[in-house]
Amino acid sequence: MARERYDAVVVGAGHNGLVTASYLAKAGLRTLVLERRSRAGGPLATEEVAPGVRAPVAADCVGGLRDDVVRDLGLGSHGFRAIEPEVAAFAPSADGPGLTLWRDPVRTATELRTRTQPRDAEAFVAFDRRIRSLGAFLARVQATEPPDLASPSLADATGGLTLLNGLRHLGRQQLREALRVLPMSVADLVGEAVEDEALRGVLGARGVRYTAMGPRSAGTALNFLWDSASGGGAAGRTVFARGGPDSLAEALVAAARSNGATIRRDADVAAIRTGRGSVEGVALASGEEIDARIVVSNADPKQTLLRLLDPAEVGPTLGWRVEHIRTPGVVAKVTLVLKGLPAIGGVDGERLHGRIVVAPSLDDLERAFDDSKYGRISEHPYLEATIPTLSDPSLAPDGTHVITALFQYAPRRLRDADWDEAARDRVADGAVRTLEVYAPGIADKIVARHVVTPADLEREYGLSGGHPMHGEHALDQVFAWRPLLGHARYRLAGIRGLYMCGAGTHPGGGVTGGPGRNAARAILADSRRARRRSTRGRARGADP
Q: Which residues are 385's β-sheet partners?
């Protein structure tokens, strides 16, 4: 029986894989997406956590999704609808009024004037202005293919000019400021901007979210600013997909299919086939082989290079470097189904529509991180919760609400313990205990709970180390160093036709579509160059 043949095979139907497939199919490449699981979208999963109740159990917000991806792929015409509440974040207090960060920084400043540090009102507006300016520059960086530092090309020069133009827009003073703050800790960044400890805590949390670092770790200011590239200023953006995050996955699937891509679920890729320095296709666990001149992996770098590729192709040096990509997952996800809406921090209305951040101060964040350094689940965790049923009542019956909370820190490698049911219960109990401080009686409202641990992220979604970002966002693992220096341009291991498009590539993790879009651009640029070379070769061969 003849093997199927495609122009491009995409391994993994996570959101970046679907974005890449859509762009490739739209450009006319016969494209196949292979997904190991029974549904597409990866962590964009909305599951039934109780009878009639659906909730996001991994990713919950989609505020980083690039506008050009939504526009280019026509996601709105395929059912994607974004919900962005007026409140970005609410930080409850156990002994006084909570702190609200609104989408409008002036509204935030107005409320700050009533707090213990009224000078923070003007300081916050100035800080927000700085963050928006730096974020706009970093948005250009994120949309640019990293250069090949060892052998710069004309394309690298063009990308460099784009960034240079962005630097000119910053101005000399802002340029100096960018170079100063990027290596800083987020504690230093926010600490020199504002004085209110609660304000420092809720801002600083954005610098450590999803990372195995504390607020005083060098480079966490970069995480804060990198996240700000999607807009939102100092408060960040809080955006939900109507119907839950899997509605975004469904829109991406529909867009890919409308452009001509084929998507196969329950198709476990066991190996990427290579020969004579080029990809030849993939082999499935079932024994089936599929031919393709382009293979794009949406798996993380460790899965791609250490599991899917022949070790002889990777070689010992590159293999050693890949093994040392840091993927220390420290995040769990706790979902609580409640009978009735709890009052959190004394409020139960509009202020709960955004992110609910339990990070009372930078010191509290640092102490939560301290536990994880020694392989322990945080006794007093940093929580970042949402109540998606407030913005999207379709997720649950009337009167029922869902709280889904990011629990940090819960290290993948526990000291003297495994991720068994006892450890799972410790995470759920710790989340409830922490919420009870700010919402007395919430435990009595719980009718069901669901926990996703770092071990679950590794097993169910194939995330090495249980790291949702495919690797740490750190100074040595971003831009031209993501995933590795010399392999940051979406082409991998010197094998023609082999690419990566997942969060392990620039610009990194989060629901952005950025890596998928950038990878597709690189693939299509290579395809155009290959066609031009082929045309010139045929023309020379035809000369008398």
A: 356, 405
φ/ψ of 500, rounded to 5, equals -125, 150
* Alpha carbons 330 and 327: distance in angstroms, whole number: 9
Q: Mean of the pLDDT values across residues 43-48?
A: 92
Residue 96's pLDDT is: 83
- 3-state SS string for 394-420: HHCCCCEEEEEEEEECCCCCCCCCCCC
Q: How many Å apart are CA 325 and CA 462, to the nearest integer?
A: 16
Tokens representing 32 are: 């196949």
Cis peptide before 483 (omega within 30 of 0): yes
Tokens representing 156? 């690298």
- 499, 297 contact by CB (below 8 A): yes
Interval 187-222: pLDDT, tens: 999 999 999 999 999 999 999 999 999 999 999 999
SS3 of residue 367 by DSSP? helix
Spell out the alpha helix ranges (H) of 362-513.
362-373, 388-391, 421-438, 442-445, 454-461
Yes or no: say if 202 and 89 are a contact pair by the CB < 8 Å rule.
yes
Place of tokens 């291991």: 493
Find how far residue 515's CA is from the centre of its chain: 10
**What's the whole-model pTM score?**
0.94
Residues 66 and 517 sit within 8 Å (Cβ to Cβ): yes
The answer to whether 411 and 372 are in contact (CB under 8 A) is: yes
Q: What pLDDT is recorded for position 377?
A: 98
Is the pLDDT at 492 greater than 60? The verdict is yes
Q: What mean pLDDT comes out for the span 92-115? A: 94
The torsion angles phi and psi of 344, rounded to 5 degrees, stand at -110, 125
Tokens representing 178 are 């960018």
Helices (H), strands (E): how many in the chain?
19, 18
Q: What is the pLDDT of residue 425?
A: 97
Asked if omega into 328 is within 30° of 0 (cis), the reply is no
Q: Which two structure tokens, joined as six digits, stand for 47?
A: 């599951």
Sign of CA dihedral 210, 214, 218, 220: positive
Residue type, 23: Y
pLDDT at 67 over 80: yes
- Cβ distance 406 to 438 under 8 Å? no
